């Protein structure tokens, strides 16, 4: 209920004529149980103020005068004055009520006596007025009315007529003669004789119309509207209502509301009013109608009445109160859902700052209270819906809750909690950017919020979960940079918070994973320097530091960090580190040490490198990396040319790890070490040992043979050559052919049965598509040697009986030797041609000579012997000619190749065969003729 002033209690003063100087009260009746029983309030009439004398003293004198006088006029005058004194002073002076009734009964006799005489010193209109009063006080209402009618009829111009008319109308009203009362009141109003009674008459006019039933209610409404206009003509009137008018105004609102409720509710009110000319009291009328419905239990009608005014005058200053009254009405009905809806409308209506500013203090308090209660309700509703699996309902409720929290936050002194709740609601809704914004505001923009750190942490957690994609929202993809900025802000504001070090440790790990080592180290160092960091956080930070240092090649710093992490892991401070994790740290530590060895080795600090490699085994004994480190230590010793130490390490490695993959390479490294230390025999022995278990042993054996050759160990070398050549190797290229020929050549030089290898050497060269100067030289020389051997065999064959057979053998031997020499020529070319020509010529010359000197068969006579001899000469001649031809050809080579020993020997033979031509004491000189010699 809207009240700009205290509850109306209407007290209307009716002023008696100045001559009468007295007053009286008329009981017009009280409200009954039905509309027909309703009565207007009491009307009190007062005269002008009394003179400033002692009322009790004056009353005492008039009392005595009334008792002692026998004159009717005197007694009547004294009675009038006593009544005026009592009414004006308010004191209990003069007659008691019982005495007054008795006195007025006695006074009536005096009045009647005066009227009977027909003469009176005063005014008769006044006397009639007083008689009417006396009859009224003594309960003689008919007589009182009669006197009033006489007054009106006999003295129409009397100043007492307006009051008389008013009392006549009042009497008709009291008697239930409402139409007559309406006429009387209207006549008084329209006469304009008394402004004093017009307001009261208009008020009673409305009641008289109301009492005539619904058919007259429109007239009654118009009258009551005029009453209100008269009492409350302007806005300021609402603030300055006199106490005597309160009941009248209140009663007018009450009856208007009642009539409207009975006819058509708010629409009826609107019809009675003029929207084009707003009245300052209209809102009170709608309010009274709403109250009426509420009292009657008609909740919806009450709400409708409030809303009707909201629509009727939407810009009225009392609209917020009406909206609040809707809330109260629904609340009174116990309809919680309607209450929430009404509160929501109120909140929404004043959500804008400009609208909120128009609310008064208590209304703003209500707005805040409604917002918080509604937000809390929706938050709980969202939680319940989520528990029941109603995802859509849950998200909707949380979204609405967040909206209310967000609207409330700027309008409360302590906004931190509200903003945090808004953030939680947005988070549950799935609107992560808004949730983040709310958490940030709660943390950093809400002074005095005791849980600001938790709100800030919520923002951090939201970003972290967003990076980890726990929400699955495509629109919310924060980056690691965002999380770092939030963490830095958190650390700056809440540096003492025990969650900071854990957050920094997490960021360190994330930046490591992102590849930003600088930031990773930055956050890790913050953890390591934080006084309150937990061992688990330090453990994580040391690991990050170690990994980054290791990735950046700062292996010394990495080793230090891994050692710190290992110390923590092995201590009692960490309970959750299992064996696998410890093993992983040791592997990383071993790796850091190992890498230091690699770096030192690459930078030429070989001794330092060996030291690092050897330390790995103390960190992680027997591990793969420790094994490799031992291997690398040996390699580094090789690189440092510390052959003896390298050999020792390599041999120990092979002994300790015979089945390791790296062991397969030990032999090669030992070979290298032995070779570099000038111990080829040891190197060869290593190769031969390795060949025993090698898939291709001859590759190693042949290398060993070369080392044996270098060492001068011919016997072992030749044995390897023979064994390999016995496998029938085929050359696949020129180098392989040359290598095989080399083996054969060396066997010809130092091995057993050299002619066998000469033969093999020659045949391989003849059958090969690849040749080199050396192989051709070796083969041609071998062929010459074999030719010489064949020539010797040829020479050793004598021509004996039977000649045909021995000659055949001789010719075959010649052919063999000749072919050897031809092979030598084919292989050696000009280098061996002189010797080959000489030897071939000597074969023919020897055959011719042997033929000439062969024995003549003994069974021939002299003639036959001579003929036989001639036949032999004929047979020998071609061979001799062939010999001369070859020697001559050899001799001619002087001009192109110059002189050599074999050419000289051919000349000797020619001199022997043709002394006249070739036997000269000359010295053969060799020269080269050139075109520019001038010859």
Describe the structure.
- With 935 residues, the chain is mostly helical.
- 71% of the residues lie in helices and 1% in strands.
- The protein has a 3-stranded mixed sheet with strand order 1-3-2.
- Helix 3 packs antiparallel against helix 4.
- The longest helix is centred in the C-terminal third of the chain and has 31 residues, at 862-892.
- 41% of the residues are buried.
Tell me the major beta sheet.
Answer: 3 strands, mixed
The first-to-last residue Cα distance is: 154 Å
Structural class: mainly alpha
- Percent of residues in helices comes to over 70%
Number of helices: 43
The geometry reads as: rod-shaped
Q: Regions with pLDDT < 50 over 5+ consecutive residues?
A: 4-32, 41-47, 922-935
As laid out across the biggest beta sheet, the strand order is 1-3-2
Tell me the Rg in angstroms: 73 Å
- Strand % is under 5%
* Mean pLDDT level: 84
Number of strands: 3
In short:
With 935 residues, the chain is mainly α. The protein contains 43 helices and 3 strands.
Task: List the keywords.
about 950 residues, mainly alpha, three-stranded mixed beta sheet, 43 helices, 3 strands, about 70% helix, disordered C terminus
List the helices and strands and how they pair.
Layout: E1 12-14, E2 25-26, E3 43-45, H1 55-68, H2 72-89, H3 97-117, H4 124-137, H5 141-154, H6 161-174, H7 178-191, H8 195-210, H9 217-231, H10 243-263, H11 266-272, H12 282-295, H13 299-312, H14 319-333, H15 336-349, H16 353-357, H17 361-387, H18 391-408, H19 416-429, H20 432-444, H21 452-467, H22 480-493, H23 500-514, H24 517-529, H25 535-551, H26 555-570, H27 579-602, H28 606-619, H29 624-639, H30 643-656, H31 666-676, H32 680-691, H33 697-711, H34 714-725, H35 734-750, H36 754-766, H37 773-796, H38 803-828, H39 830-852, H40 862-892, H41 894-897, H42 901-913, H43 915-918
Helix pairs in contact: 1-2, 2-3, 3-4, 4-5, 5-6, 6-7, 6-8, 7-8, 8-9, 9-10, 10-11, 10-12, 12-13, 13-14, 14-15, 15-17, 17-18, 18-19, 19-20, 20-21, 21-22, 22-23, 23-24, 23-25, 24-25, 25-26, 26-27, 27-28, 27-29, 28-29, 29-30, 30-31, 31-32, 32-33, 33-34, 34-35, 35-36, 35-37, 36-37, 37-38, ...
């Amino acid at each position: 209920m809207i009240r700009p002033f205290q509850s109306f209690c209407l007290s209307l003063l009716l002023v008696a004529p100045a001559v009468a100087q007295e007053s009286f009260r008329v009981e017009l009746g009280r409200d009954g149980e039905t509309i027909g029983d309703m009565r207007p309030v009491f009307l009190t009439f007062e005269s002008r103020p009394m003179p400033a004398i002692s009322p009790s003293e004056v009353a005492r004198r008039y009392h005595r005068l009334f008792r002692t006088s026998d004159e009717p006029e005197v007694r009547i005058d004294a009675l009038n004055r006593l009544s005026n004194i009592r009414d004006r002073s308010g004191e209990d002076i003069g007659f008691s009520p019982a005495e007054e009734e008795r006195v007025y009964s006695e006074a009536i006799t005096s009045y009647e006596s005066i009227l009977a005489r027909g003469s009176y010193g005063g005014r008769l209109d006044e006397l009639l007025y007083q008689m009417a009063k006396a009859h009224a006080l003594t309960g003689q209402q008919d007589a009182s009315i009669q006197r009033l009618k006489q007054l009106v009829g006999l003295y129409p111009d009397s100043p007492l007529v307006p009051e008389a008319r008013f009392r006549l109308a009042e009497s008709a009203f009291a008697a239930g003669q409402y139409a007559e009362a309406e006429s009387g009141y209207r006549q008084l109003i329209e006469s304009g004789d008394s402004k004093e009674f017009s307001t009261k008459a208009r008020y009673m006019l409305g009641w008289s119309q109301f009492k005539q039933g619904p058919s007259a209610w429109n007239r009654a409404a118009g009258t009551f509207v005029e009453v209100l206009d008269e009492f409350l003509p302007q806005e300021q009137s609402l603030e300055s209502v006199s106490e005597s008018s309160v009941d009248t105004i209140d009663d007018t609102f009450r009856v208007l509301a009642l009539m409207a409720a009975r006819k058509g509710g708010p629409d009826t009110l609107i019809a009675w009013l003029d929207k084009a000319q707003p009245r300052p009291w209209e809102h009170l009328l709608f309010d009274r109608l709403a109250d009426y419905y509420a009292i009657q239990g008609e909740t919806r009608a009450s709400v409708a009445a409030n809303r009707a005014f909201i629509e009727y005058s939407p810009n009225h200053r009392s609209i917020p109160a009406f909206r609040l009254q809707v809330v109260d009405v629904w609340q009174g009905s116990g309809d919680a859902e309607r209450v929430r809806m009404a509160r929501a409308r109120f909140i929404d209506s004043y959500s804008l700052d400009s609208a909120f500013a128009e609310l008064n203090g208590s209304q703003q308090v209500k707005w805040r209270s409604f917002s918080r209660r509604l937000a809390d309700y929706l938050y709980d509703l969202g939680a319940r819906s989520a528990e029941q699996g109603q995802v859509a309902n849950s998200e909707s409720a949380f979204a609405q809750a967040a909206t209310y929290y967000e609207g409330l936050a700027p309008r409360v002194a302590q906004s931190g909690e509200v903003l945090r709740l808004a953030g939680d609601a947005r988070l549950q809704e799935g609107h992560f950017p808004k949730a983040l914004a709310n958490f940030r505001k709660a943390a950093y923009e809400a002074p005095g919020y005791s849980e600001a750190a938790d709100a800030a942490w919520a923002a951090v957690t939201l970003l972290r979960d967003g990076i980890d994609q726990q929400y699955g929202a495509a629109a919310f993809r924060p980056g690691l940079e965002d999380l770092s900025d939030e963490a830095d802000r958190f650390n700056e504001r809440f540096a003492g918070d025990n969650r900071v070090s854990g957050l920094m440790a997490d960021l360190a790990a994330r930046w490591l994973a992102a590849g930003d080592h600088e930031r990773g180290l930055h956050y890790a160092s913050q953890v390591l320097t934080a006084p309150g960091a937990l061992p688990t956080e330090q453990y994580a930070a040391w690991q990050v530091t170690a990994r980054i240092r290791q990735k950046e090649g700062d292996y010394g710093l990495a080793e230090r960090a891994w050692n710190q992490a290992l110390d923590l892991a092995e201590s009692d401070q960490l309970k959750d580190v299992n064996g696998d994790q410890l093993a992983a740290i040791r592997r990383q530590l071993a790796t850091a040490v190992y890498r230091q060895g690699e770096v030192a080795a690459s930078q030429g600090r070989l001794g330092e490198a060996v030291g690092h490699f050897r330390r790995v085994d103390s960190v992680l004994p027997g591990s793969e990396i420790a094994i490799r480190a031992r291997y690398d230590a040996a390699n580094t010793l090789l690189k440092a040319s510390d052959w003896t130490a390298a050999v020792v390490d390599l041999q120990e490695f092979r002994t300790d790890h015979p089945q390791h993959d790296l062991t397969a390479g030990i032999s090669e490294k030992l070979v290298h070490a032995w070779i570099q230390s000038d111990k080829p025999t040891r190197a060869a022995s290593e190769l031969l040992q390795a060949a025993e278990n090698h898939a291709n042993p001859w590759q190693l054996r042949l290398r060993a043979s070369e080392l044996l050759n270098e060492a001068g160990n011919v016997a072992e070398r030749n044995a390897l050559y023979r064994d390999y050549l016995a496998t029938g190797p085929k050359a696949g290229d020129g180098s392989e052919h040359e290598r095989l020929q080399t083996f054969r050549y060396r066997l010809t030089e130092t091995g057993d049965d050299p002619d066998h290898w000469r033969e093999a050497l020659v045949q391989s060269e003849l059958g090969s598509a690849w040749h080199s100067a050396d192989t051709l030289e070796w083969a041609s020389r071998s062929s010459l040697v074999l030719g010489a051997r064949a020539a010797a065999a040829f020479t050793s064959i004598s021509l004996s009986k039977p000649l045909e057979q021995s000659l055949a053998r001789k010719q075959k031997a010649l052919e063999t030797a000749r072919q050897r020499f031809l092979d030598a020529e084919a292989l050696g070319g000009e280098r061996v041609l002189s010797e080959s020509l000489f030897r071939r010529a000597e074969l023919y010359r020897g055959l011719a000579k042997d033929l000439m000197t062969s024995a003549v068969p003994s069974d021939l006579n002299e003639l036959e012997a001579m003929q036989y001899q001639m036949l032999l000469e004929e047979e020998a001649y071609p061979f001799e000619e062939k010999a001369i031809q070859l020697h001559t050809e050899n001799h001619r080579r002087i001009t192109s190749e110059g002189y050599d020993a074999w050419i000289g020997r051919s000349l000797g033979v020619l001199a022997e065969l043709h002394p006249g031509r070739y036997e000269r004491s000359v010295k053969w000189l060799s020269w080269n003729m050139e075109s520019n010699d001038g010859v």
